[in-house]
Every structure is written in C-alpha cells, then in structure tokens.
Amino acid sequence: MNVQSEILRDHKPRSTPAFLSVWDMHAYYGESYIVQGLSFNVHEGEILALLGRNGAGKTSTLRSIARTGSPMVTQGEIWLDHQPLHKMSSYEAAAAGLGLVPEDRRIIPGLTVEENLQLAQIAPPIGWSIDRLYDLFPRLGERRKQEGITLSGGEQQMLAIARALARDIKVLLLDEPYEGLAPVIVDEIEKTLSLIKEQGITTIIVEQNALRALKLADRAVILDTGGIVFDGTAEEVLQNDALREEYLAI
Ligand SMILES: Nc1ncnc2c1ncn2[C@@H]1O[C@H](COP(=O)(O)OP(=O)(O)O)[C@@H](O)[C@H]1O
Ligand SMILES: [Mg+2]
C-alpha cells in the first residue's frame, strides 16, 4: 500500500457511521487460532469484498460474524445497527438481520423451490414476498414446482440468495457465490446483486474470483493468515498490481 492511501485511510471521515462493525475479533477451531484480531467496518448499503488466498480465513470470518459457534469467537465485538451480535446465538443473529449464504448452499432435499422459500418464512421477521423474489429471479419463478436440489448450480445459488432475502435481513453474507458457475451465470448473479444493493441491503461477498468481486464491490478487505493486510476501496486494489499479486495471485 502506498503512503498516500495510508494517509487517506487515516483521514477516513469519522462521521460515517459503521453499520456492521467488527472489532478485535479472535476465533479458534479447538486449539487452532484462525481469526487473529480482525477489525473492520461495513457501511450501510455498500458491497464489501472480503478477499484473500485459499485458507486465509474468509469463511471463518463470515462464520464468526454469523455466530455459528465454529469457529468459536473468544474475544471481540460485533455490532450490527447498534445490536451486539457478539452476545447472540446464530439464531438470534439471524433474527437481528444477518443472512449467511454458505458455500455449499444447503438447499433442502425433498422440497420444491417454492417450499424452500416458504420454509424460510415460517417464522417472523419475514422479508421479501415470494412474488418479489420471483421478480428478482425469474428463473426461480419458472421452476417454482421443481425440487430445489435438481436445479443447476447457478439456479441453486439464486435460490440460496432468495431464501436469505425471504427473511427480513440487513446484511447478506455470501461465501463464494460464483464458485463453479459459468461466466454467463456469474453475469446474471452479479446483476442481481446490484439490484439487491439498490434495495438498500448491505453485502459482504467472499470470492476466489477476486476481479469479479472487485468489479461489483465498493470497498475491499484483504485477509492473510487470519489478519487484515488491506482495507480500502475496490478501485485501490484494482490499481495496485503488487498488492493483488502478493495476496490475491491475480
Ligand atoms: N472446521 C475446521 N477445523 C479446523 N481448522 C479449520 C476448519 N475450517 C477451516 N480451518 C482452517 O482455518 C484456516 C482458514 O480457513 P477458511 O476460513 O476456510 O479460509 P478461506 O475461506 O479463506 O479459504 C485454514 O487454515 C483452514 O485449514
Ligand atoms: Mg472459504
């Protein structure tokens, strides 16, 4: 990182309140110390790309924020819109507005597309209506009666995102949403994520496809062995060849 961006970072306007704030977060899998004191902010309505090499700790960071219990967060604070997530169970954090879309998508076998969405709305707080979700993802509307797990990979990813929005969420946490998908499907999901942003939802996207994520994101945080090595704009990362080569291998 050059000196100028260092200075710019130090002079970030303090008046912009963080919507999601992670402060000095540490987390372990058993004895393994993985998340090593992370602090970063996400502003309301922005898309933050959380990047870094394989094994850098991106999934662990999302799972820590979502209060999954694995890894176990031992220290630090996580605030979402003035609510202390660090004091909550995963269930409470979801009710407080956190929507985690894990890498494996977890579509429920034996249920149709529509039933997967209905199940997400079985308890309040309810988010987008199913009709509105079909407007956002027309492919899901066309396949509403099809069993969810028989959808293509891209459609399953859309269903996983739609299911998160079916609840009343403030922040969408996406773990490798483009993984294994053809570029045309990535285009489609990328457009949808922009539309979701226009609706005021805040997003953290973890992606191995860093260039695609940076194209979409406003800001980026780069992790390396469980610590933060960069926090700045997506544009800065795109312009900094050395940074991308060292931490993203692109
Ligand atoms: N369930 C687990 N138990 C023990 N170690 C794990 C577990 N999951 C991930 N790790 C380790 O934590 C580190 C970070 O992994 P992860 O968060 O999955 O990275 P990323 O998502 O950036 O690829 C890696 O060294 C990985 O081997
Ligand atoms: Mg991962």
Bound molecules: adenosine-5'-diphosphate, magnesium ion
N-to-C series of helices and strands? HEEEHEEHEHHHHEHEHEEHH
The first-to-last residue Cα distance is 16 Å
Low-confidence stretches: 1-5, 11-15
| Biggest pleated sheet | 6 strands, mixed
Fraction of residues in H or I helices: 25-40%
The CATH superfamily label of the domain at 1-96 and 218-250 reads: P-loop containing nucleotide triphosphate hydrolases
Instruction: Tell me the structural class.
Output: alpha/beta
Strand percentage: 25-35%
Q: What's the assembly state of these chains?
A: single chain
In the CATH hierarchy, the architecture of the domain at 1-96 and 218-250 is: 3-Layer(aba) Sandwich
| Spatial sequence of strands, sheet with the most strands | 6-7-8-3-9-10
Q: Can you tag this structure with a few keywords?
A:
four-stranded antiparallel β-sheet, Rossmann fold, disordered N terminus, alpha/beta, 36% helix, BCAA_Transport_ATP-bd_LivF, binds adenosine-5'-diphosphate, six-stranded mixed β-sheet, 11 helices, Amino acid/amide ABC transporter ATP-binding protein 2, HAAT family, transport, ATP hydrolysis activity, 10 strands, 250 residues, binds magnesium ion
